[in-house]
């Protein structure tokens, strides 16, 4: 009984798309637009592992949607809807109120509907969101398309969220708690970027996924990394650790030919982008500082490590 009243009280909103069905039946039903492909991803947040236990319920709600929309954005797709699988240790109405508000705030910001889910009890607070989006057939931007000579470009700033985690209560905590999925930029890059990934585990580790999938290497210009002034003020090794290995930024990292980069710069973008390196033929990742090769020690986040 409690399960149904939670769904009804906190998660049911009218879903008004002709012939489609949202919450309330055994499954949701969607009608995909013609000539588009469905893009789907899922991400789990575990309390104490993916966010500090004291994180506000509103932030947890926002972030559980945002991290998924970031994966949709990283394919160049337009987000459409989400499903929510919620495992709660107990029924805490204040928490549910804040969580659902944060979740719907993020949904509303990006034009996404909650169309279903599951609600269960378990010892640990665990939130799994599945996001669905659409993209014109064949237009998705994969990790495997980077080519030697492409520019490497990143949106926003990197290292903010990791710095925010180390300095809870400081100005950058909001970048940890309220990541902004780069949905508009991702869609703008359709037909322009050659490969793309979202930065969730640290820029170096995530870029490495592109390099492996594309069988290429990269040179990163350390002095061009877009950093917050608070991070920029740190000694080099420390700031590069935040920028290259800090997780949870949810910025987009993409590769693009120099010609397409020029075209991109003609467009009105709602987020800063910065060229930080070049794709190279040899399959290694090297760093340059002051015009010289400069090895950096760092490690990105890994589960089970
Ligand atoms: P079933 O028993 O058939 O699995 P449920 O009782 O779990 O169905 O869910 C009833 C309806 O509520 C379904 O449409 C389901 O998608 C939706 N739902 C359940 N939990 C959530 C949730 N946390 N958020 C959104 N929708 C939910
Ligand atoms: Mg169920």
UniProtKB/TrEMBL annotation:
Chain residues that bind Mg(2+) 5: 201
Gene label: thiL
Residues the record lists as binding ATP: 117-118, 143, 200
Binding site for substrate: 50, 248, 301
SUPFAM superfamilies the UniProt entry points to: PurM C-terminal domain-like, PurM N-terminal domain-like
Protein's organism: Acinetobacter ursingii ANC 3649
Enzyme nomenclature, EC number: 2.7.4.16
Function: Catalyzes the ATP-dependent phosphorylation of thiamine-monophosphate (TMP) to form thiamine-pyrophosphate (TPP), the active form of vitamin B1.
Positions bound to Mg(2+) 4: 26, 71
Family, as annotated: Belongs to the thiamine-monophosphate kinase family.
EC class name: transferase
Gene3D superfamilies the UniProt entry points to: PurM-like C-terminal domain, PurM-like, N-terminal domain
GO biological process, one term: thiamine diphosphate biosynthetic process
UniProt protein name: Thiamine-monophosphate kinase
Record domain PurM-like N-terminal: where: 24-134
Something else known: Reaction mechanism of ThiL seems to utilize a direct, inline transfer of the gamma-phosphate of ATP to TMP rather than a phosphorylated enzyme intermediate.
Pfam family, one: AIRS
């Amino acid at each position: 009984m409690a399960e149904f009243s939670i769904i009804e009280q906190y998660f049911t909103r009218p879903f008004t798309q002709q012939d489609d069905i949202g919450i309330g039946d055994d499954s949701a039903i969607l009608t995909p637009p013609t000539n588009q492909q469905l893009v789907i991803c899922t991400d789990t947040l575990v309390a104490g592992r993916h966010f500090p236990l004291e994180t506000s319920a509103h932030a947890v709600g926002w972030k559980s949607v945002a991290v998924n929309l970031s994966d949709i954005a990283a394919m160049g797709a337009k987000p459409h809807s989400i499903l929510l699988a919620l495992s709660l240790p107990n029924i805490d109405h204040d928490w549910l109120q804040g969580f659902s508000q944060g979740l719907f705030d993020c949904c509303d910001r990006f034009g996404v509907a909650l169309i279903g889910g599951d609600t269960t009890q378990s010892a640990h607070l665990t939130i799994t969101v599945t996001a669905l989006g659409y993209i014109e057939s064949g237009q998705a931007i994969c990790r495997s398309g980077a080519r030697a000579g492409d520019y490497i470009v990143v949106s926003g700033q990197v290292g903010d969220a990791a710095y925010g985690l180390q300095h809870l209560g400081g100005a950058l905590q909001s970048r940890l708690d309220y990541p902004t999925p780069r949905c508009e930029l991702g869609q703008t890059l359709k037909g322009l970027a050659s490969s793309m990934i979202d930065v969730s585990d640290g820029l170096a580790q995530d870029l490495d996924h592109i390099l492996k999938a594309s069988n290429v290497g990269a040179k990163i210009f350390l002095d061009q990394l877009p950093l917050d002034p608070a991070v920029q003020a740190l000694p080099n090794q420390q700031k590069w650790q935040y920028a290259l290995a800090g997780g949870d930024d949810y910025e987009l990292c993409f590769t693009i030919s120099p010609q397409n980069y020029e075209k991109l710069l003609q467009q009105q973008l709602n987020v800063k982008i910065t060229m930080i390196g070049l794709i190279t033929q040899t399959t290694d990742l090297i760093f340059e500082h002051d015009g010289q090769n400069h090895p950096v020690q760092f490690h990105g986040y890994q589960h089970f490590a």
